[in-house]
């Protein structure tokens, strides 16, 4: 079940975007119970004072009727409350080798950067796997991170995180190069290659 927590966060309008994040949490009872799961139905018990309990129904094998139920207290290591504070719609889709596959729907692309930062602040590691136009149902416009190299993905994720694509920009190629330990031209080449592939995946050949 998608989790929708009311918040004062503003929406900027436009077509909603759905981002798929792969999160390795510092400690997650759901992932401990089932390091690999085909589907997860999750509900957070929240109030205006915060989220206190996580309830999950885990389908370990899609061909097996067996499900695992968990109900655990939420602590500082849980990444879901960190996402919920942004007032976005999100859901825990599956679990891969202990990593949570999380779908997040936002109207402001900048929120994705903020959500990633919040997850990392909570102690989790996260990578962006895909961004999709939420209104598209035929898969057109999907941005598959697997279509780019690891170095290109690292560069573009850092660029998004540091605000390279914000208006106005909050960083430049020099700062990105320093963080990655490479030259400005190397960063530029990686970003250009990744952007080209991502744009082709959006608009087609």
From TrEMBL:
Tell me the ranges covered by the HTH bat-type domain, including all copies.
148-199
**UniProt entry keywords in alphabetical sequence:** Transcription, Transcription regulation
- Name all DmsR-like N-terminal domain ranges: 19-132
Q: Does this entry carry the keyword Transcription regulation?
A: yes
Any Pfam family hit? DmsR_N
Highest taxon above the source species: Archaea
Recorded hits in InterPro entries, A to Z, give: DmsR-like_N, HTH_bacterioopsin, RNA_pol_sigma_r3/r4-like, WH-like_DNA-bd_sf
Where does the chain cross the membrane? none
Respond yes or no to whether keyword DNA damage is given for this record: no
**What name has this protein been given in UniProt?**
DNA binding protein
Recorded source organism is: Halobiforma nitratireducens JCM 10879
